[in-house]
């Protein structure tokens, strides 16, 4: 029984990082006319109303999208993200924050496809309703790892696999690496973007080390920690491991993350963009 609801956390500093990386990869795929598929393993509800009691209860979005909305920073990637969020809030007030499926669907062209899996009994129908009638989008109530076996490879050779578990279960930490391995066996030409939380630094480094040891030839680590490392009880930051990143991604994020750091990080926080090889 899953209890995690992304509606408590949507738009927080971790979502900002994840969705910026997601946008950068999709915009890169769009440079060619050839179609691509985004496979979103943990779709969530698709979109979140700011007025929702869950959002208001934690207020996490205030120190994420809340610090950025309505501004432009002269950084093309960050501004692209903010333009996308602004496009969903035409009244000029932040009323809705897009989840990863809505971000993908907003960016997709006619020829591209989005496929999502989600297991939660409340969030799955919300996700399904959100995309009812959009023929580019397929939504399945299915376990993420089973979904990768059932739905990969897609018909297109190009794509992004976004892996964003809630890490509610201990097994998520090990399932992610196995999931990426399985995905690559089926869909080797895709980019894989894995989100991870930073709660306990030692644990985070162990998680990253397992990816390095797995020997993926092209692995990029991106991290944005709003606060100094803590004792393991609260999330102080988050990161993304990107396998087969677009060749432009590291440079692009090296420009964007210092701007994010200025806006989102308190004293003791940090950002990081680092290609990883087996020696690290
Ligand atoms: N990717 C979404 C976004 O950025 O808007 C947020 C996803 S949230 C962090 C994780 C989601 O995964 C939750 O909605 C949860 O119900 C779902 N989930 C957890 N374990 C799952 C599993 N094994 N298979 C499919 N979905 C799962």
Automatic annotation (TrEMBL):
UniProt key word Transcription regulation: no
Domain of life, source organism: Bacteria
Marked site: Interaction with substrate rRNA: 4
Top-level EC class: transferase
Residues that coordinate or bind S-adenosyl-L-methionine: 19, 42, 100, 118, 143-144, 164
GO molecular function, one term: 23S rRNA (adenine(2030)-N(6))-methyltransferase activity
InterPro entries linked: RlmJ, SAM-dependent_MTases_sf
GO BP term, pick one: rRNA base methylation
Active-site residues (renumbered): 164
SUPFAM superfamilies in UniProt: S-adenosyl-L-methionine-dependent methyltransferases
GO cellular component assignments: cytosol
Keyword set, alphabetical order: Methyltransferase, RNA-binding, rRNA processing, S-adenosyl-L-methionine, Transferase
PANTHER family to which the protein is assigned, alphabetical: RIBOSOMAL RNA LARGE SUBUNIT METHYLTRANSFERASE J
Role: Specifically methylates the adenine in position 2030 of 23S rRNA.
SUBUNIT field: Monomer.
Annotated family: Belongs to the RlmJ family.
Protein name: Ribosomal RNA large subunit methyltransferase J
């Amino acid at each position: 029984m899953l209890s995690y609801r992304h509606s408590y956390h949507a738009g927080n500093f971790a979502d900002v990082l994840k969705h910026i990386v997601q946008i950068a990869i999709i915009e890169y795929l769009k440079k060619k006319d050839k179609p691509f598929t985004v496979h979103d393993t943990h779709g969530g509800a698709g979109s979140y109303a700011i007025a929702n009691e869950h959002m208001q209860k934690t207020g996490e979005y205030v120190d994420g999208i809340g610090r950025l909305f309505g501004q432009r920073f002269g950084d093309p990637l960050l501004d692209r993200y903010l333009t996308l969020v602004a496009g969903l809030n035409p009244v000029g007030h932040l009323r809705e924050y897009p989840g990863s499926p809505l971000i993908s669907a907003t960016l997709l062209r006619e020829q591209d496809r989005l496929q999502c899996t989600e297991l939660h009994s409340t969030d799955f129908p919300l996700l399904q309703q959100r995309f009812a009638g959009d023929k580019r989008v397929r939504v399945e109530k299915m376990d993420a790892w089973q979904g990768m076996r059932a739905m990969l490879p897609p018909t297109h050779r190009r794509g992004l696999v976004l892996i964003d578990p809630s890490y509610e279960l201990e097994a998520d930490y090990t399932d992610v690496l196995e999931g990426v391995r399985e995905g690559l066996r089926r869909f080797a030409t895709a980019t894989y973007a894995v989100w991870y939380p930073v709660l306990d630094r030692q644990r985070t480094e162990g998680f990253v080390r397992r990816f390095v040891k797995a020997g993926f030839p092209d692995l990029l680590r991106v991290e944005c920690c709003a606060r100094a490392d803590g004792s393991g009880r609260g999330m102080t930051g988050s990161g993304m491991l990107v396998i087969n990143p677009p060749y432009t991604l590291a440079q692009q994020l090296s420009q964007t993350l210092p701007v994010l750091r200025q806006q989102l990080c308190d004293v003791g926080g940090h950002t990081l963009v680092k290609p990883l090889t087996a020696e690290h």
